[in-house]
Each structure stands twice: as C-alpha cells, then as structure tokens.
C-alpha cells in the first residue's frame, strides 16, 4: 500500500427530513440527484463562511478543495406535484395571480419519513489552512442548527431546511490500496476497478449517477466538472478495489469526488 502525506480533514453531517438537489438538465419535471453534488457542498460551505454568491468557484475548485460524502441512512425518492407561483413583485407572494405552474418535483426522503431523517456525512479538506481553521472554529462554536454567517442551511432548495452536526477533525492519508477495502463514501467510477462480494452474500442497493463537481466563473461545468459516481442507497460501505483512496485515522476508507 502506497501512502502519501497526512492531511487534516473536517467531518460533519447534513441532516433533514427531505431534500431536492435539482439536476442541471431538468426542465418541466424537476428531477433530483440522490446525494448533494460536490458543487452543492462547496456552495453550502461558502454560504456558512459568508462568501458572496458566485464568488467562490475558484476558491473551492478541484485543485484546491477535496470533498467526500456518504449516505448515513437509507433513502428513497418520491414524486410530488408542486404548485409554483410566478413571482415578479412582493405582491405576488399571496398567490392572487392567475398563473400557477403544476411542476412534478422529485424529493429525496428517508425510508421511514415519520421516524427517520436524511443523514449525509461529509468529509472536507482545503489546501488553505486559514479556510480550514475558520470553518472548524465556526462548526465548533456555533449552536446546533444553521450555524451560518451567510445563508440558512438547506438541503438543496430553500424550502427543505436542514441542520448540521460537527463530527470533528480527523487525519487522513491518500493511499493506493493493495487489495479490496470497505469504502464508506460514494466512489467515482474512474477509480472503481471491481466490487468484491466475498464468499458470504452481501446485500447492496447501488446506483450510478453523473454528478457536477466544479463550475467556472460563468457557472458552467468545467472540462473535468462532471463524473459518474457509485452511490450506496442503504448507507452501508462497499467493499471494492479502487485505484486510490483516503485512509482515515480510525482505519476506514473514503474516496474524493473527482
């Protein structure tokens, strides 16, 4: 196993009752990604730190920032019709205007929405120690809830408010595993070599989704700004052979979204 330098990684959870991470190509039907894309996580962190809108794409680019995430609890999707309003002025917010749009909207919800909740676990690393220290200080000192200097925390759209739980800082090493390892996070398909099932049967619920990773200054995906990801819908780790991974100090493995 090849091991590189040790890095400091922040771990936190995004939780809530439902989410909608709109696919960039959706039009009449608002489809959702199953997990928050890397661009969404970067926007959340930028909002928590108080960065102005559209000002942070270079700061949180693939060259400067690393993100990994996993489903911490089983999820499913459900379509709902949303009665949307045409808002051109504050007076239109009372719903008195004639134009209403019935839009099918795909929601991500827990398997048991009455008792459960969404639980996305995020691992975050930035090359700038100042950003890491500022974010860690904010997460440590803020009361449970939004803990934001900018926008309120939402799981995609503003109506799906969520909350954040700080798991703490951990150490990680970028490694090239010599064999199959249990990977907690979503796995980029270019890094996936083989899924190992072993002798005993293993129950997986896996999907493959193309997620946006990085925007340029015009809010367009860069040349390497999209990639296919293997996602576990149950929250269980996937034992797989991967070309590279990050081994955390507790012996678990994650892969960066890149």
TrEMBL record:
InterPro entries of this UniProt entry?
A: CRISPR-assoc_prot_Cas5 (IPR021124), CRISPR-assoc_prot_Cas5_N (IPR013422)
Q: What organism does this protein naturally occur in?
A: Pelotomaculum propionicicum
Q: Which residues form a coiled coil?
A: none
What is this protein's record name? CRISPR-associated protein Cas5
A single GO BP: maintenance of CRISPR repeat elements
**What keyword terms does UniProt attach to this protein?**
Antiviral defense
Pfam families according to UniProt: Cas_Cas5d
